[in-house]
Amino acid sequence: MEYFDLEDPFTSLKEHQSDTISALFSSESDHMPSQNYLQCLKTSDFYVSFRQEAISLILQAQYSCNLDPYTPYLAVNYMDRFISRQDIPQGNPWVLRLLVIACISLAAKMKEIHFSSSNFQREEGFIFDAPAIQRMELLILDALNWRMRSVTPFSFICFFMSLFELKDPPLTQALKDRASNIIFQAHGEINLLEFKPSILAASALLLASHELFPLQFPSVETSILSCEYVNKESLLKCFNATQDMVVNQISESIVDTVSSSSTRTPLSVLDCHCTKAESESTTSTMGATAMAEKREIKRRKLNDFCSESTRVQISQIQPFG
C-alpha cells in the first residue's frame, strides 16, 4: 500500500489547490460511519460497550507496541465505519479482538510502519493465525469499499490555518499541536461522531486559539466562519460539545490527582492529621476552581444502521483460521 498521511489524504494539499480542497470537503462524508450509527450507540448498550472495549484495546496496542498516535486513530476510524455497516454477533468475544487486530494491521500498513500482531496478541493472551486476520481484513476492506485513505479532522487542519496568517512559527506549531491533541481526545466521544471531520477540525482550532491567544481569537473565528465550506450552525454545536469535553476531562484529571495524593501513606499520627486536613483543603479549593473555570468557559461559548450493507458477514470468519 502507498504511504498515507492523515494530514494529506490526497497527497496534494500542500499547495491548497481549490479543486483539491473542494474534493476534500465533498468526500469527507464517505469516510464517516453511517448516518444512524450515533442513534444505534445511544440505544444499544451492546454497541457502546463493544466500542469502548475495542478502543481500549487499540490504545493498549499503541502503548505496548510503541505506535505513533495517528495509527490507532486511523484504526478506530476503520472500526467505527465497519461496525456501522456490519452486523456484529453477540456472545462471541473473539470477534472484537479479531476486529481490533485487523483494523490496527490495516492502519499500520497504510502508515507503512511495523506492527507485530503476534507479539501484541501474546501480551493480551489471545492468538489468531495469519489467515484469520487476513480474512477479517478483507471483510473490512469490502465494507469500507476500499476507501482506506480516510479523510479525518487532521486533513483540514492546514487548510483552516491557511485562512488566518500567524507570523510566529512557534505559535503556529503550538496551535496545531493543541488542536491535534483535542482531536485525539475527541475520538472516544460518542456525541462527537455526528460531526463531519472538517467541523471537528474547525472546532478544535477555535478552542485551541481561544486557549493560547484569546486576543486573536475573534480574527481566527471570523476567518473560519467566513469559509464557504463551513456550516455555522453545525460548527457552533460542535464547538460547544468539544468545549464541554475538554472541561470535563480537566475536572476529571483534577479529581484523579487529588484522589491519588490523598491516598499517600502517613508517617505518623501527626502526619495523618495534616494529610487529611491538606487533602480536604486541596480538594475543596481545586474542586471550587474547576467548577469556576467550567462556569467561566460555558459563559464564553460561541453563542437503518443494522440493516445497511450486509454484503459481508462476520459469521464467515472463524476465531482460529
UniProtKB/TrEMBL annotation:
GO biological process, alphabetically ordered: cell division
InterPro entries: Cyclin, Cyclin-like_dom, Cyclin-like_sf, Cyclin_C-dom, Cyclin_N
Gene3D superfamilies documented for this protein: Cyclin-like
SMART domains, alphabetized: CYCLIN, Cyclin_C
Keywords for the protein's UniProt record, in alphabetical order: Cell cycle, Cell division, Cyclin
Manganese recorded as keyword: no
Superkingdom per UniProt: Eukaryota
Residue ranges constituting the Cyclin-like domain according to the UniProt record: 56-142
All residue ranges annotated as the Cyclin C-terminal domain in the record: 151-267
Listed Pfam families: Cyclin_C, Cyclin_N
Family that this chain belongs to: Belongs to the cyclin family. Cyclin D subfamily.
Protein's UniProt name: D6-type cyclin isoform 1
Lineage: Eukaryota, Viridiplantae, Streptophyta, Embryophyta, Tracheophyta
